[in-house]
Amino acid sequence: MAANEQQVYNTTTVAETKRPGWFVVPTSVLSKPRFVLKVAEVLLSFVAFILEEVVSNCTSCTPLYVFEFFSCTAFLFTTLLLVLLATTLHQKVGITCWPTLDLCYTLAIGVLFLIASVVFSADNGGSQLEGAAVVFGFLASFAFLVDAGIFVKTSGLPCRSGPRPAPDGPQHRAPEVEKLNANGTE
């Protein structure tokens, strides 16, 4: 009897599966090519921010400050987004629309960073540091826009709503056609 109990126990037991580590790429919301692009976005915006911070004198400081704001914002928020999407943390945050959030953020920061780079390139003191910051600003902007383009090409627009399948709950199922046997004789 003990052998049968052991056999029944073994067949109903599921082996423990190995849980993935913290860093898991690709995930359901981030592919490997887009992961590489996001790392490039972080690095390029960081270099643009550092180069802009090293500028000691400005003739027209407003474009410099706008560029500083967008390069710093791009670096910090893209780093946060990268950490969330490339780890299991995105499952623990209460956000369910990661694709929409990712696309909207990436597209918005790409366009705003591009505008800031154009404004800063048009109105700066002409130093080599400012020129280098502008170049890295343009590179980062294009990386964001390419990332958004790849996202749309591979995944489509997440905000488009087509015909949705009917929910599969008990209240939405078709009624049973077959009668139940009341006394087992039919």
UniProtKB/TrEMBL annotation:
Transmembrane segments: 64-89, 101-120, 132-152
Highest taxon in the source lineage: Eukaryota
Record Pfam families: MARVEL
PROSITE patterns: MARVEL
Start and end residues of each stretch annotated as Disordered: 161-186
Subcellular locations according to the entry: Membrane
Domain MARVEL span(s) in chain numbering: 29-156
InterPro entries referenced in this protein's UniProt entry, alphabetically: Marvel, MARVEL-CKLF_proteins
Name of the molecule in the record: CKLF-like MARVEL transmembrane domain containing 6
Protein's organism: Scleropages formosus
